[in-house]
């Protein structure tokens, strides 16, 4: 064959191969987008999702949609310009604000709260700022039924005689920790928390349409509502809540993982909880040295619910915001991740706990198990029974209601269903620990560690209980 012709054949063969490879990648991406859209559309059709979704893969947004309604009457369709409350994720703004001031030398995480808020009772001299960030202050929660504004809540704080526990000794997730962080920021900066967030966080992060504490007069605010069509209030008892669009939320997610506002060192302080599985200022996640590996945070407020998941090495960000909570955002997110990975994925199902919590309040542990088993047999395709999380969430719900005996029974049953899961034995150990049954707590923590040798939480409690 003529050498020139052979070179041309090789050249065009190479180009054809590259074109085919590119076409294959494009088709693969289109397939992912189509599957994600089918998942979301089906969930909406079944009444299991109303809200906005953004998915980025390899650092590029491949899917963004708004589906459902912005009002309870279902007369106004959502668009991607609508802003949503994001529940506890909005607490990231005060946590990042505290770390910004720490990096500027304007406070130390070891400073006592009394240094900045001297008007508070004597307990403020026991609580350090780091305790507020890690929810280990010992403060009781906000009195949501009676506190109508910041002033009311400050009056309630002034009436507290003693803390629920010694600061740093236990973990209790509640909003008085958040409230005091915001007041400390105001004391140091001399401006309102709202102004601080707008000037020093939203603008630098490129969040051009976010609003702190939206009111009835603000436009393009998705209103949350329950399944009976009842609209929730828009204004909250304590202030400082940022409502965001999808683009705002994505800008914030990138600001965190790219360290636009605070350094890797400061980020590490507020992404790690006091123990694994506990909330931190940024919710949760992981870092490898100065590199972000993951950032995960969920938030719920009335019928608003939001979830942010960033898997940094893969360039994946998944954002879900709903104004009609169904308790299924994690299952939707898992399915989207599976689609991105090219793996089989589960269709969206109803949440057992969110659907039946009122009914469970009237049942014993044994009755809950019987109800769960019957529902699983008759409606297995409608509710999520695929993994341990359903009963695990139920057990923690019962613990939050101080129903420890019933919680123990639920966790015990879960270990029978999922005997190879270290997590379910860890949960059972925690329930026994809260019951002050140290021998059974130790037994289950050891079983958990045997199944999951990386469980640092189990190691901590085993060390304590062995003493």
SSE blueprint:
Layout: H1 3-45, E1 51-57, E2 60-67, E3 84-85, H2 92-103, H3 129-134, H4 150-158, H5 175-189, H6 193-205, E4 211-212, E5 242-244, H7 246-257, H8 264-271, E6 284-288, E7 291-301, E8 304-311, E9 316-322, H9 329-340, H10 352-360, H11 365-379, H12 389-400, H13 404-417, H14 422-434, H15 438-451, H16 456-466
Antiparallel strand pairs: 1-2, 1-9, 3-5, 4-5, 6-7, 7-8, 8-9
Helix-strand category = alpha+beta
Give average pLDDT, whole number. Answer: 92
Secondary-structure element series? HEEEHHHHHEEHHEEEEHHHHHHHH
Counted by DSSP, the helix tally is 16
User: Can you tell me the number of structural domains?
Assistant: 2
The counted number of beta strands is: 9
CATH architecture of the largest domain: 3-Layer(aba) Sandwich
* Multimerization status: single chain
Q: In the CATH hierarchy, what is the superfamily of the largest domain? A: DD-peptidase/beta-lactamase superfamily
Portion of residues within helices:
40-55%
Radius of gyration: 24 Å
What characteristic shape results from the CA principal axes?
A: globular
Spatial strand sequence of the major β-sheet: 2-1-9-8-7-6
Query: Main sheet?
Result: 6 strands, antiparallel
DSSP strand (E) fraction? Answer: 5-15%
CATH-derived topology of the largest domain = Beta-lactamase
Signal peptide: 1-28
InterPro entries: AmpC-like (IPR050491), Beta-lactam-related (IPR001466), Beta-lactam/transpept-like (IPR012338), TPR-like_helical_dom_sf (IPR011990), TPR_rpt (IPR019734)
GO molecular function, one term: hydrolase activity
Keywords: Hydrolase, Signal, TPR repeat
